[in-house]
Amino acid sequence: VRPASASSVPATPAAAATPATTAIPATTATPAATAARRAARTAARAAATALAAVLLLGGCAARIRYETPREPLSVLAGDAFLYARIRGPSLALLAPALLPEEESRAIAPLLARSRELGLALVPPGGPGERPGLEALLVGDYPFRSASLALAGDGAWKREGPGYANAAAGVRVALPGPTVVLASSGPIEPLVERLKAPGPEPIPARLSPLAGREVVLYAPLPFDRLAESLLGERLDIPARGLIIAAERAGAVPGAPEGAGSEAAYDLALAFLMEDEDSARIYKGAARLAWYALVRSLFPEEAEAILSRRIEAEGDLVAAAGIRVRASSLAGALSRLGGR
């Protein structure tokens, strides 16, 4: 996926300007945004507590017949408003940014055994409730561990195919040696989906970006995600928003060996309902992207926004955006509520 050059973008008639009803709200934190971030932080801490204990879980778990999922996101809830997937070397580098420092240190041994992480934030069950979280890790885990530490810990109770920690508000399962599951809700649906995964949530139209090391995907971004972060839905016909990044060596001019200054090539695409929607609502998508960049990448916002975001078919997209690993980690930490 790449943006078209300016010369290839159809001219937008003045009469087709973005309707006033699609104005993007100011980026000042709203109560809904604050609540969503607080919920994400709480859920992430709970998941970290559970995942840190997984290395002690193996001897107590019951093996379940399953195939290691090719796409972890296909196992997660189908109604999530935000998906994240991190794989390869970026997992150990960036996944800790989603968690508070103490929890990040706690799960470092688990991440060292992992190849891929999938996360999903799902809508709350009712007014005043917090968004839910589901997580799946793929790697090599000590399923046959002789340790009975988790079973002997009073904070963890056996529940169905896994264990529940009522105080942390999380449930975990280790169904086999290659997968770890965690959920802030019942673990059974996640286990069932592991045995029979659903469709991949990222549309095939976005597959060129979906294969990158770091992927964030929001279905119906002006609907579910906007309501969660801004407190209201926007009347913009977008099917999805993908932000994807791939490691690109070191930042030009950075001192040799400065691992924290590794660079990533970032790309994004709004998948609109059709080509007309992409042309008509390009301005609204651009404003939404500007607001998101200034919120998630404040240190590099000007450089990022110097890249043009253009319409190409049913996409409104930009590519070739170089960001520092520390900036990408900062964006993930802000999504995680740190």
What does this structure look like?
30% of the residues lie in helices and 25% in strands. The protein contains twelve helices and twelve strands. It has helices at residues 31-53, 90-94, 101-106, 108-112, 149-152, 188-195, 207-210, 221-230, 275-280, 282-296, 301-305, 325-335, and strands spanning 82-87, 114-122, 132-139, 157-159, 162-165, 170-176, 179-183, 214-219, 238-250, 262-272, 310-312, 315-324. Helix 1 (31-53) packs across helix 8. The radius of gyration is 20 Å and the shape is globular.
Give the key terms.
disordered N terminus, 12 helices, 338 residues, twelve-stranded antiparallel β-sheet, single chain, alpha+beta
Strand portion, in percent? 25-35%
Elements, N to C (H/E): HEHHHEEHEEEEHHEHEEHHHEEH
Oligomeric form: single chain
Give me the secondary-structure category.
alpha+beta
Report the average pLDDT across residues. Answer: 77
What portion of residues is helical? 25-40%
Shape label:
globular
Q: Could you describe the largest sheet, including whether it forms a barrel? A: 12 strands, antiparallel
**N-to-C span:** 31 Å
Summarize the structure.
With 338 residues, this protein is an alpha+beta fold. Helix content is 30%, strand content 25%.
Explain the layout of strands and helices.
Elements: H1 31-53, E1 82-87, H2 90-94, H3 101-106, H4 108-112, E2 114-122, E3 132-139, H5 149-152, E4 157-159, E5 162-165, E6 170-176, E7 179-183, H6 188-195, H7 207-210, E8 214-219, H8 221-230, E9 238-250, E10 262-272, H9 275-280, H10 282-296, H11 301-305, E11 310-312, E12 315-324, H12 325-335
Antiparallel strand pairs: 1-2, 1-8, 2-3, 3-7, 4-5, 5-6, 6-7, 8-9, 9-10, 10-12, 11-12
Helix pairs in contact: 1-8
